[in-house]
Design a protein that fits this description.
Layout lengths: L1 E10 L1 H8 L3 E2 L5 H14 L6 E10 L15 E2 L24 E9 L4 E9 L5 E8 L5 E6 L6 E4 L3 H10 L2 E5 L17 E3 L5 E3 L11 E5 L2 E5 L3 H70 L1
Antiparallel strand pairs: 1-7, 2-7, 3-4, 3-5, 5-6, 8-9, 8-10, 11-12, 13-14
Subcellular location: Membrane
Membrane topology: Single-pass type I membrane protein
GO molecular function: calcium ion binding; carbohydrate binding
């Protein structure tokens, strides 16, 4: 036998999956299951609610296509990857896509006592909505809660925040977990800012950085978060330092280039001098030979 619980605290699709663990986001694969869940929703929604939206375990992967001819339109139940369903009820046809990740919500209208209309709607998985979990009854642990104002004991699932919240709204309670004498009188008190109830109804820190509230880097802290970015002084220093480094690099390059040009000029001048010296020596050698020949001729004539 299955047990369903409604969580009114909004969460993204992936976060809802985690919070349902060791259970799962609920399926509505049969007409009976859909009737049970709608009855549960009717029992927990406040009278002033006119409509509702809950994450259920219905998702389409990025590499799969929307198929209008199928009951689930190409979406699959996250519990077992099945596309089987007796329920073919969409309030809005999913947008045709084969590349985008899409998740489905159970959406409907409420008249204060019963659900008057309902169906599935698909959209991005990052939006936060309330959600409905499902798990086997034998896996459920229970609180035994006794009203401090008198009354009978009630069994409350330790992972069912809604049921415990409804009971707490009637009167304060003293709770014992699985029969152990654990004082949980503050279980009915709201959490401090920056904290929320987990599946065991304990106040735990909210990771605000998951929603990227900062322009730059975000650091989660107990009950809050910090945005880390460059201050004005750092930016001013960068404006001065970077152009200075560029100017130094340009100057070094110019000096290297000037050195290469000077060296080439000196080598060319030295080469020219060597050539002139060789030409002069050749000329002198030629003139010396001619003078020797004339002297020899003059001696012969004498």
């Amino acid at each position: 036998m299955k047990r369903y619980t409604v969580h009114l605290e909004p969460a993204s699709f992936d976060r809802a999956l985690q919070k349902c663990s060791p259970g799962v986001l609920t399926t509505l694969s049969t007409a009976q299951e859909a009737a049970d869940i709608l009855q549960l929703v009717s029992g927990v929604l406040p009278n002033y609610y006119n409509n509702f939206t809950f994450w259920v375990g219905l998702r389409k992967s990025k590499n799969e296509c929307v198929v209008p001819e199928r009951p689930l339109k190409g979406f699959k139940w996250t519990t077992n990857g099945s596309q089987e369903s007796e329920v073919d009820r969409w309030r809005m046809e999913p947008e045709a896509t084969c590349t985008a990740l899409r998740c489905a919500v159970l959406s409907g209208e409420f008249d204060g006592s019963t659900v008057t209309s309902w169906g599935f709607i698909s959209g991005t998985c990052k939006v936060s909505y309330p959600f409905i979990c499902k798990r086997d009854r034998q896996e459920v642990r229970s609180f035994t809660c006794t009203s401090l104002l008198g009354g009978n004991n009630v069994q409350v699932d330790c992972w069912s925040g809604v049921r415990l919240q409804l009971f707490c709204s009637g009167s304060p309670v003293a709770c014992h977990l699985n029969g152990s004498a654990v004082d949980l009188n503050d279980v009915c008190l709201p959490c401090q800012d920056g904290y929320q109830r987990d599946a065991a109804w304990r106040c735990v820190d909210v990771d605000e950085c998951g929603n990227s509230p900062c322009r730059h880097s975000c650091v989660n802290t107990p009950g809050s978060y910090l945005c880390v970015c460059y201050d004005r002084e750092d930016r001013s220093t960068s404006r001065i330092l970077i152009p200075g480094l560029v100017a130094v690099l340009v100057l070094v390059l110019l000096l290297v280039l000037l050195g290469v040009v000077v060296k080439c000029c000196l080598m060319r001048r030295s080469k020219k001098r060597a050539m002139k010296k060789a030409e002069k020596l050749a000329m002198e050698s030629k003139d010396g030979g001619r003078d020797s020949l004339e002297t020899t001729n003059e001696k012969k004539a004498t």
